Amino acid sequence: MHTHRFLVTGGQKLKGMVKVGGSKNAALPIIAAALLTDEEVVLTNVPDIADVAVFSKILQAVGVETHYDGDCFKILAKTVKNIEVEHALVSKLRGSSLLLSPLLVRNKEVRLAFPGGCVIGKRPIDAHLDAFKALGAHVLASDEFLHLKTDQLVGCDFTMTEASVTGTENAIIAAGQTTIRLAASEPHVQDLCHFLNAMGAKISGIGNHTLHIEGVDKLHGAEHRVTSDYLEAGTLVIAAAITGGEVTVQDIRPHHLDVFWQKLREVGVQFELGDDYVTVFPSNHLKAITLKTAIFPSFPTDLQAPFATLLTKAEGTSSIFETLFEGRLQYLHELEKMGLQPRTLSPYRAEFAGPVQLKAATVASWDLRAGAAVVLAALAAEGQSEITDIYYIDRGYAKFEEKLRSLGAKIERVE
Ligand code: EPU
User: How many angstroms separate the alpha carbon of residue 233 from the centre of ligand 1?
Assistant: First the structure.
């Protein structure tokens, strides 16, 4: 953990073009799935973020060769050691739960400290464990420790306890001949399936909530370009809109964000969508809305905090309804330091009146997306803000401040 902070001077209208990088939430399960083969896997468009670096260290700890150069990540899992992975590494990211499935498949046993990550509510891992049980694994877990064992994983037809993203990904990686119902269908889940198919798997129903997986004898090495990060794209779009700037965000997949575009239109943000880009134009009058998060293809929880920050500029009372996480409204306390007057109605609901001219303040990142949200607020605020705890932002946004600076933002990283 480092002590870096961002200093942001607000008031600059962002201008120019910026390219979105590869998806964090796709890269992690794909890297995990690469352990299913003893042949080389070559991934491109892998984002240069702390979560990928930690993942790479965990892989090396279990004897897997990794090589990261530019955005190219190579993995060679000739052997995978059956050891307990060091708690210090696993506890750094919640996504390390994704290693349960490939390690279980390779060694018929896995012991992993309870995964860490962002502090956003309880985030139960039950959906993962239920899926493993359905597939024939014995779960010998305690509260801090996960221990899975199997004589033989067996294909079946089962329904996820809830449409958990990484839970679904674990189930897909561990599954043989299987039907998974109530599968999460986020773009990163889809990308994992495409990658597995490139390795020789036969997965159909990609993008739906029912996935059919045909059993195959063996998976082989493959090359794959990680899909573009729709959450980074959404964040950059909001950066443009909140500053009243004119920005083109390139290399996006517009259909990953359908409800996001609907909500932007409802607010009154002017933009033009192309096949793989969006241009945001300055907008005069923004209107308050109700924002409700839900599983894909609805409005993503990961863009709730950034979008709510834009709503501070909208006229009227905006309501936020976060239906997935119970701890994802804390950034509102930070925005309060900047002059917003939010009313928190429950751990899931809040409302506030706008428009508000935000004022500079020292504000903290509560998690990855809450961190991005306070940076966005600072871009629109009067004066110089200081953002602390930015290691959360570094976990998932590659070169965040460099990208913003290339658009004219006044943001610098200081110790
Ligand atoms: N949940 C529901 N209903 C559902 C599905 C989930 O209420 O149908 C609740 C869960 O109970 C939990 C929360 O939603 O409280 C998230 O559950 P999930 O298991 O889907 O989350 P995850 O797999 O641990 C992934 C992403 C998160 C992202 C969530 C939700 C990765 C590595 N992580 O987490 O990403 O917020 O899905 O989309 O893919 C981030 O990128 O900032 C991040 C935290």
Answer: 19
